[in-house]
Fold this protein.
Amino acid sequence: MLGGATAAAGLAAGTSLVMLAAAFFLFPRFDAVKSARPMSQVLLRQMKSGEPYGIYPRLDSTFLIYTGRFAVELDSEEKLRAFARSPGRVWILAQRDDLAKLDPPLHLREVARDPDPKGGYLLLTQE
């Protein structure tokens, strides 16, 4: 009976160690690829007070959380193009694959890109 309890305790301890290792070493590596935090930090460093930003093609709530600011919802190509023509500087977070489908393409300056090569975000501005 004691052998079974010892084995169960050993298994539980081993599982806990694997989970702790994943939490401290593996998950932070995914954070750089999947998290909106790094791109939000770049946006906040670049943006001046009062400058708006929009998200295309759909709002991503993680950017709202990490920036602590409201975003303009750019849920259509027409809204995106109108926002890009706005007077003053505006910022656009656009998913790379959706932006590539635009014809004609938008002529915006790329400020930053996240590490996800397919569906990742680009940070753009028109100035």
The chain has two domains: 1-34, 35-125. The longest helix spans residues 2-34. The mean pLDDT is 87.
